[in-house]
Amino acid sequence: MSILAWRRMQKAGKNAPSPDSMALNSLKQQLLKLGSMVEESAVLARSVLAIADMEAAPQIRSSDDKIDILYHQLENSCTQLLTDKSLSQKQVCEVLSYIHCVRDLERIGDYCKELAELGERLLPSQPLPQRDAILIMLDRCRSLLALALDCVSDDDGSAGAKLQNFDDLVDADYEQLLEKMMDPIPTSAQAYEASLLLVLVLRCIERMADHAVNVSQRVARASK
């Protein structure tokens, strides 16, 4: 979904009416490109947790390096645009929202890398306890990310309620899974370590969802 949104923005950027609008459209295209890279990392992280795909983990680490490079490029582009005195107040607000969106997306990418590392450490515990429920939680998080990127593409500040509903579901998943994993408390050392690692997995997914919601909220504020 976000890749299609990025392509729409590429096409729209060719018809931008002014240099400032062209610069903002170019920035948005790059932001959506970053989002699509993060989405791909989330898909790979799911594979590590679902089927112990250990080939996916190195791909995530390699992708994270590329995400970091684009992240710094986007930060520099935003800084340069903010020094342009010809920008309107609304355009300045857009650039500021993009800076924060870039940081949120970069953090989601970091959490994907952490999920891959945790998945590697959980290899002896495959199939994971509560695996299906964990994957549902991660899929909801991925839906949040896709919706947030659509908000960026369409400058849609009205989708906050829909994203909040998804985020509430992720929070509920988090609480329920935590309770199930610690009741009863594992007795063996291996099972206890696996439970702790899974708690970290849940925390990563919960934080990813929060950052996705942040993206939509920043777009909403900038579009007012």
Give a topology summary:
Elements: H1 2-13, H2 19-51, H3 56-82, H4 89-121, H5 131-154, H6 160-181, H7 189-222
Helix pairs in contact: 1-2, 1-5, 2-3, 2-4, 2-5, 3-4, 4-7, 5-6, 5-7, 6-7
In helices, the fraction of residues equals over 70%
Order of helices and strands: HHHHHHH
- End-to-end Cα distance, whole Å, is 25 Å
Report the total helices: 7
Beta-strand share of residues: under 5%
Indicate the low-confidence ranges by residue numbers: none
Shape: elongated
Summarize the main sheet.
Answer: none
Total beta-strand segments: 0
Report on the architecture of this protein.
- The protein has helices at residues 2-13, 19-51, 56-82, 89-121, 131-154, 160-181, 189-222.
- The relative contact order is 0.14.
- It has 224 residues and is mostly helical.
- The protein has seven helices and no strands.
- The two termini are 25 Å apart.
- The chain is elongated.
- Helix 5 (131-154) packs antiparallel against helix 6 and helix 5 (131-154) runs parallel beside helix 7.
- The model has no long low-confidence stretch (mean pLDDT 87).
Main features:
single chain; 224 residues; mainly alpha
Question: What can be said about this structure in brief?
Answer:
This protein has 224 residues and is mostly helical. Helices cover 83% and strands 0% of the residues.
